[in-house]
Design a protein that fits this description.
Blueprint lengths: L1 H8 L69 H13 L3 H14 L4 H13 L3 H14 L4 H13 L3 H14 L4 H13 L3 H14 L4 H14 L2 H14 L4 H13 L3 H21 L1
Helix pairs in contact: 2-3, 3-4, 4-5, 5-6, 6-7, 6-8, 7-8, 8-9, 8-10, 9-10, 10-11, 11-12, 12-13
C-alpha cells in the first residue's frame, strides 16, 4: 500500500508540476445519506494515447475488460467515519496520510463516489492531474449527472492541456447545475489554467462575493490577479486564504513570492519560512 502512495502521491523526480495545496478537498462533509452510490460502479483510467476522451466509453480495467467492483456498501464498518477522518487529516495539511486513508477506503468500497471524488481533488491539489482524472472519471461513472464531479474532471483536463474535453465537461456541468458555486469555482479554475485570467477573475470574484469563506475561490482569484499584475490585490486574496486555512502552505509560499515582487524581503522570508515549516511537518508525518 505504501508503495502505491509513494508512486501516486509524491511527485516524480524532475516533474515540472508544482505540488499545490489550497485544498478543494476540505469542504464540509455532505450529509452521509447523500454520500457515495448504491449501484455498481467501474474504475475509469486515463487513455494512454493522445486525443480527446470519448465520454461514451465504458469503464474498464487494465486488461481492457469491464472492471468488476463491489457495490458501495453503506454498512461497511465506519466507512463514513473513516472518510471524515481522512478529510480532517487533509485539512491539517497531512496530505500523504490523507491519501493513504482514501486509498484504504476505496480498496474496500471502490464504488464509494465521495471517496473517489475527494482522492481526485487531493491529487489535483498535489499537482498530479493525470491521477486526478482517473479518480474523477471513476466518480463520474458512478453518477454521470453529478455536476461537481463533471466540473472537476473538466478542470483537471485543463491542467493537462486537453481543452476540448475540458470545455465539454464544464459545459455539461453548468447545464446540470448552473447555480452551483462549486461548479463555478471549477469553471474559474479552468479559465485560469487556459490563461484566461480576466475571465477567471470575474468568475472567482463572483464566487467570493457569494461565499466569502470559499478558500479555493480566493486562492485562484489571487493567482489570477498575480498573473494580471495586480499584486496588492493578490496579497489580499492570499491573506484571506490563510485566515480560512491556516495550514495552507501553498498560500504562504505564494505570499512569499508576492512580497518578493513588492520588494519586501523580510515579509517574504517570513512567508517562505512558514511554508517550509508546514511542508516539513507533512513530510515528517508521511
Amino acid at each position: 500500500l505504501w508503495e502505491e502512495i509513494v508512486r501516486e502521491v509524491i511527485p516524480r523526480p524532475n516533474e515540472e508540476s508544482i505540488p499545490v495545496f489550497f485544498v478543494k478537498d476540505l469542504a464540509e462533509l455532505p450529509d452521509p445519506q447523500n454520500v457515495g452510490d448504491s449501484g455498481d460502479g467501474g474504475t475509469a483510467s486515463v487513455q494512454e494515447e493522445s486525443g480527446e476522451h470519448d465520454d461514451s466509453e465504458a469503464a474498464s480495467g487494465p486488461d481492457g475488460q469491464a472492471a468488476e467492483e463491489k457495490p458501495f456498501d453503506p454498512s461497511a464498518p465506519y466507512v463514513d467515519e473513516r472518510l471524515a477522518i481522512a478529510v480532517r487529516t487533509a485539512r491539517k495539511g497531512r496530505m500523504q496520510e490523507a491519501a493513504r486513508l482514501y486509498i484504504e477506503i476505496l480498496s474496500e468500497t471502490p464504488a464509494y463516489l465521495e471517496a473517489q471524488f475527494r482522492l481526485g481533488t487531493l491529487y489535483d491539489d498535489l499537482g498530479r492531474p493525470e491521477l486526478a482524472i482517473e479518480r474523477f472519471r471513476a466518480a463520474s461513472a458512478l453518477d454521470p449527472t453529478n455536476a461537481r464531479v463533471r466540473a472537476s474532471l473538466g478542470a483537471a483536463y485543463g491542467a493537462v492541456g486537453r481543452f476540448k474535453a475540458a470545455d465539454t465537461e464544464m459545459q455539461l456541468a453548468l447545464s446540470l447545475d448552473p447555480t452551483s458555486l462549486e461548479v463555478r469555482v471549477e469553471q474559474g479554475l479552468l479559465a485560469f489554467r487556459k490563461g484566461l485570467n480576466a475571465d477567471a477573475e470575474e468568475i472567482l470574484r463572483g464566487v467570493c462575493k457569494q461565499d466569502p469563506r470559499h478558500a479555493a475561490a480566493h486562492f485562484y482569484l489571487g493567482e489570477a490577479l498575480n498573473r494580471i499584475g495586480r499584486v496588492a490585490e493578490a496579497v489580499e486574496a492570499m491573506e484571506r486564504v490563510i485566515e480560512l486555512q491556516p495550514h495552507n502552505w501553498r498560500a504562504y509560499h505564494t505570499l512569499g513570492m508576492l512580497f518578493d515582487r513588492m520588494y519586501e524581503p523580510d515579509r517574504a522570508a517570513e512567508m517562505h519560512r512558514r511554508a517550509g515549516e508546514l511542508t516539513c511537518v507533512d513530510s515528517a508525518r508521511g
